[in-house]
Amino acid sequence: MAFDIPLFDLNFDDHEVDAVAETVRSKWISMGQRTVELEERFAARLGVKHVIAVTNCTAALHMACVLAGLGPEDEVIVPSLTFVATANAVRYTGARPVFADIISARNLSLDPDDVQRKITQRTRAILPMHYGGWPCPMERFAQIADEHRLVIIEDAAHTIDVDYHGRKLGTWGKFGCYSFFSNKVITSAEGGLLATDDDQLAARAKLIRSHGMTTLSYQRAQGHATRYDVVEPGYNYRIDDIRASLALAQETKLDGILARRKELRAVYEKALGDVDGITVPYMGMTENSANYIMPIVIDSGGEARRDAIRQYLADHGIQTSVHYPAIHRFSIYAGTHHLPTTDYVADHLITLPMYDSLTEEQVGRVADTLQGALAKHN
Ligand SMILES: Cc1ncc(COP(=O)(O)O)c(C=O)c1O
Predict the structure, then answer these.
(1) For residue 275, how far is its CA from the centre of ligand 1 (angstroms)?
(2) Contact 73, 122 (CB under 8 A)
(3) What percent of the chain has pLDDT over 70?
(4) Predicted pLDDT of residue 213
(5) CATH class of 14-251
(6) Least CB-packed of 46, 112, 117, 131 within 10 Å?
């Protein structure tokens, strides 16, 4: 079904097409100089010593978990209101994700108080996710991590180049993991970054990105190396230069995209401010955000009413989504979990359209149609 107002739209034009064409014509299409350029550009943007570009954010999360030394017997505290990759990456190492609640319907970030309650002798790491591009309370997490000697791995898939109290989101913890998946703020179709300030961990990250091999095909092709050793069982988590050139083209638009999303967020806040029966998470929050998505939480009625409202919006040409079905309710994570706020929000959440080419008029139409839906299904 084609929607008049889709949930998301790409900001792609000849700039991206030319960037890819140039890389294809160069005949070096796998990981090479474009990737190095991408890493350098984002290291500078994020103010971090090392950026390692990878196939996707899930790979970055997995590598962070491996580099943090996680294994069977270990526990990692994660949110449940996130994409399943946040928890799956922990599982790949044999460690157990332990779900903590979010703060409230107004602030969907991982709740530091609940994190504290869920710390045990086995806890090794905390994995906060910056929901929608809004900052988790990183000072609190840093303090908790310090006290209990835990590693912080930030799932920064929703954010890119967002300043929070003088540091970029994704550079507060030992590791930050970013996504360039096709519906993200900027994209290379699939792609991701691992950021860290630690020299040794960065060196090891480069090894495990490519089978634990001590030299890369690019270095060998350039005559910089003729042989390689394998020092640990790594993975193939390499990005390629076609995607890196896409990400580089997108990077040149990033400031404009973030500025436009901020404007649209303000238009949404104005349009939704007087709508009865909903909570707009992060309403009036003065911290910076990437404004990756535009969530609302209906006040009552549960999943059935939420789905009826979404259907009404779809019938009127507006695509919506739910970020996210709570992970702890999926079959593979079934068990006893006490996450009342996550449970409530997951049943009442609707994600409205958000992308930089959305117009003020379209935001107005989304808000009006939402009012109609709330009135019809009251
Ligand atoms: C919060 C969150 N974490 C992790 C991921 C995984 O990212 P990727 O698709 O790049 O592996 C996503 C992407 O959809 C996400 O939204």
Answers:
(1) 31
(2) yes
(3) 100
(4) 93
(5) alpha beta
(6) 117
